[in-house]
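Q: Got a minute? One more chain.
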Amino acid sequence: MLANKKVKSKVLILSSLMIFITCIVGGVGYFFISQSNESMNSMYKNNLLAIQYLNDARSQARAMEADLSYIILDSQRPINQLITLKDDKLCSYALNEDIKNLKVSLLMIN
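A: Always. Here it is, folded:
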């Protein structure tokens, strides 16, 4: 087939064939990379956000526990207790928000 062609023609035909094959490989790669990106975004939105909310709720609960211990141990200074109670209210609000966000994210999964 290529035996009777000039060298210039052979090089052009083989180069064109290689460019065509490279474009096909690139197109297939792009398709699967975009599909993988969609899957990772879905995994992040559905699974990892719930874990983040749980972790934040856990840290808020730990902070409230530490504040309660501080209030019990520091009974001599009521001003410090008031500051700690104010911080406790903020932690409680953040904990409630985390639980609400967790419920919403779990409803979105199902």
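A: Residues 7-109 form one domain.
Q: Perfect, thanks.
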